[in-house]
Amino acid sequence: MKQAVISCLHANLPAVQAVLNHIDRQGIDTITCLGDLVGYGPHPNEVVDLIKEREIPTCQGCWDEDVVDGLDACDCSYPSQLAERRGHLAHKWTTEKLTNENKDFLASLPTSIRRDKLLFVHGSPNSQHEYLLPDMDAFAALERVEMSGAETLFCGHTHLPYVRELGQGSIRITLKNTPNKQTEEKEINLPMRRIINAGSVGEPRHGGSKATYVIFDDKTNNIDIKEVSYDIDRTCKAIIEAGLPSIFAWRLNHGFEFAELAEDASHVCER
Amino acid sequence: MIERWALISGLKGDLETYERIQKDLKKIRGDITLFVLGDMVGAERDCNSLIDRLINPHPGDLKPHCIYGWWEDQLLAERGFRGEQKADALRLNKGEGIVKALVNAVDPYYLNWLASLEFGFVELDCGLIHGSSKDIGDKITIDTPPLILLDRLTRLGVNRLFTARSSQQFHLELTDAVVNSYVKDLGGDRKQEQKVPKRGVIGIGAGAYYTLYDVGSDKTHFLNVLDQPKSNTRGFG
């Protein structure tokens, strides 16, 4: 059975509509959303309403959490004070616009969804704020999947869609010393695990301006990264009209992100 | 002169044990640096004399380099040094009575000193932490999966991690670690084999059980001041 995984919708209604239409046209019924329904974009209520209406199982993203609980992430979320200030503006605007009913919905979202050996999270199994970048330390990446008890981990948050397979690993562990001089040596074969990042529907940062998502076929184990065109101008116009920072429109148009970059993938927020 | 580190933790106010360790260390030759990896305080006894001794070493004492541990963290939380957090973990695990006993065991006069202590030290290519780089309450044991050990080392960017939280004494070495990574994204495919150099994790013990580490040879000696040898020499000359 094929299933679609979407993430990081960021209140961009035209992008969400285009992606859902794209999924529908392929006859795929199972859709999972990895959160960040709101933030940056001009349509927070419309996007939340659409996800509710479609009854799409959704994890809570970092923006969904912060809009409900207040901004309590440490400064790792932003690479500069300027980016942080813009982020706070968007947070304030979104908090004011969201209805109480939709805030309650965001508050009710689970931080993870598990289906057998598949685990769906926003950032990582550790935190909605942790970035699992495609080229992060392979052992650390493997640890995130293995310690969560999953074989395949679906995540978002980076806005970069990718599939990463980690395998053919081993490690020799030697007990060199104990109080009773015990020694032992063993070689452990590391399991093969997979991380699938769904990219971003509403604020792509992969170098192009198209919305991205992934389709997973659990029969063939195949993953397809999909790119979908949408009416970017409509979203950009709405961003400007809403009084949100115009750079949010600029970066949607240019299709890359020069602001928020998480250089330290192993960092976990001190919250 | 041989450079050695003495690593102790979990004294929980036990000045007598600290004095015995100091006495023990005087018998050992070499240039010894003393690290106290937290849990100087606890709920079992009055901790003020030990804290005072750590702050004001007696003549002839090795000067202790202290970091805070899980019990200090709980005390500081309960005393309002951690924002809105309280000693929730202690309260949940041991009950209200122990929280009160901990608060009563340390004079408020010493709280600022405890609050000034670091989370850990990085010395040479070694991390010295009470729990781990992930959390002060992280119990690293002899049975901790190697992927977790590597993760805790990677987070600090060190080759050796000295940890105290589990109270165990052990020296684990990780070698020949390799994993293959295959990434597919919209830019194409790439394969990479990642290896890590030899790394180690050392559990230093707690209370009367402490660790002596030879910096030059990467050798550990697990000692205690419970079963003192009759001879004055300990064989580390």
List keywords for this structure.
heterodimer; A: 271 residues; alpha/beta; Purple Acid Phosphatase, chain A, domain 2; six-stranded mixed beta sheet; four-stranded mixed beta sheet; 8 helices; 10 strands; 32% helix; 24% strand; globular; disordered C terminus; B: 237 residues; five-stranded mixed beta sheet; 26% helix
Characterise the protein shown here.
The complex is a heterodimer of chains A (271) and B (237). Chain A has 271 residues and is α/β, with parallel strands linked by helices. Chain A has a single domain (2-165, 192-254), classed as 4-Layer Sandwich (Purple Acid Phosphatase, chain A, domain 2), CATH 3.60.21.10. Helices cover 32% and strands 24% of the residues of chain A. In chain A, the strands form two sheets. In chain A, strands 3-4-5-8-6-7 form a six-stranded mixed beta sheet, with helices on one face. Chain A has a four-stranded mixed beta sheet with strand order 2-1-9-10. The longest helix of chain A has 17 residues, at 81-97. Chain A is globular. Chain B has seven helices and eleven strands. The termini of chain B are close together. Chain B is globular, with a radius of gyration of 20 Å. In chain B, α4 crosses α5. Chain B is an alpha/beta fold. Chain B has a single domain (3-224), classed as 4-Layer Sandwich (Purple Acid Phosphatase, chain A, domain 2). Chain B has a six-stranded mixed beta sheet, covered by helices on one side. The chains are: A alpha/beta (271), B alpha/beta (237). At the A-B interface, α6, β6, β7 and β10 of A face α7, β7, β8 and β11 of B.
